[in-house]
Amino acid sequence: xxxxxxxxxxxxxxxxxxxxxxxxxxxxxxxxxxxxxxxxxxxxxxxxxxxxxxxxxxxxxxxxxxxxxxxxxxxxxxxxxxxxxxx
Length: 87
Prior knowledge:
- The chain is α+β, with helices and mostly antiparallel strands.
- Helices cover 33% and strands 22% of the residues.
- The chain has two domains: 1-46, no CATH class; 49-87, no CATH class.
- The strands form two sheets. A two-stranded antiparallel ribbon has the order 1-2. Strands 3-4 form a two-stranded antiparallel ribbon.
- It starts with a helix and ends with a helix.
């Protein structure tokens, strides 16, 4: 799969830089404002409690979808990891 340099730059900005086989997160002070805001909101959502009091991001099983700017799904998946690990 070919990935454009703009997408690679966005992925690196969101996840960090590869170090060996793992990713080293970029410090928040080095992030662009919009990326830092996205991370902050994602952390807030993942820390939300459901009606029973369980933390959403700690759910062991989950289904998720990523959408493009036109609200078209670009990736739909499921996980047996915690949702916060997947994101």
